[in-house]
Amino acid sequence: MEILNRTGLAGAAVAGLREEILEGRLVQGQRLSEVNLSSSLGVSRAPIREALFHLEQEGLVVSLPYKGASVVTLSPQDFLELSTLRTSLEKLAWARALERRTQADVRAMKVIIDEMRHAVENGHQEKLVRLDLDFHEHVFLVADHSRLHAAWQAIKWQVALYLLTRRIQVDDYHSIIVPEHTELLELLSSGEAEALDATIDLHIRSAYERLSTRQVNSSVITTSTPAPSSPSNTGG
């Protein structure tokens, strides 16, 4: 981790720790020691404590009595709830964005896709989750619906953790992220409402199904066969 500047320490700690989680360097279930984080970031424990509280409000960190803070571990039920709720929110967001998008919005979203492509081509897969989130965040902003955006804000960091799990456990994420988001943007740009609605549903549902299948297969392997000498990197 980079040592933080002395200004805006808590905010910088929030941003730094969030990126550590979303890029997979702090993994689900990992304990977050205030002492260790204070040392690695070069700040006192007070801004670390404040940052951990903020990340707990975002749903990325959980704090338990006598155990301290740790990165949230998402369960299969969490994945189902996030997927179904996200589908409902995104369908409304994309429908409203379809009526309100400008060429500037389309260009801004294309820039994000270009960044995705650059990350894939240069092996920076740890950047993909944040870019994926940025792309969908832009849609909620274009939708211009404050309560809808607030509902998205309430789940978006856990959606990011969901996407991270999907990126790590299912190895096709890097190969489909650019074409899938390009298709969504083309439908938004051309104004094809019905096709866009169906594609959004497929985009989110297929990601959930891939992850669920992978987890079921992994569970069967874990409970029925000895652990291999080296972990497999194949997707489900």
Distance between the termini: 32 Å
Placed side by side, the strands forming the largest sheet appear as 1-3-2
Q: Round the mean pLDDT to the nearest integer and report it.
A: 88
Q: Nearest-angstrom radius of gyration?
A: 19 Å
Largest sheet: 3 strands, antiparallel
Oligomeric assembly? single chain
Strand content: under 5%
- The run of helices and strands is HEHHEEHHHHHH
Number of helices: 9
Please mark out the parts with pLDDT under 50 across 5 or more consecutive residues, or reply none.
2-7, 219-236
Helix content: over 70%
The count of DSSP E runs of length 2 or more, i.e. the number of strands, is 3
What shape does the CA trace take? globular
Helix/strand-derived category reads mainly alpha
Short characterization:
The chain has helices at residues 9-22, 34-41, 45-58, 76-100, 103-121, 128-143, 146-169, 173-190, 193-224; strands at 31-32, 61-64, 68-71. The protein has 236 residues and is mainly α. A hairpin with a 3-residue loop joins strand 2 and strand 3 (68-71).
Folded structure, characterized:
It is a single chain. This protein has a three-stranded antiparallel beta sheet. Helix 1 crosses helix 3 and helix 5 packs antiparallel against helix 8. The radius of gyration is 19 Å and the shape is globular. The protein is 72% helix and 4% strand. The protein is mainly alpha-helical and 236 residues long. It is built from nine helices and three strands, in the order αβααββαααααα.
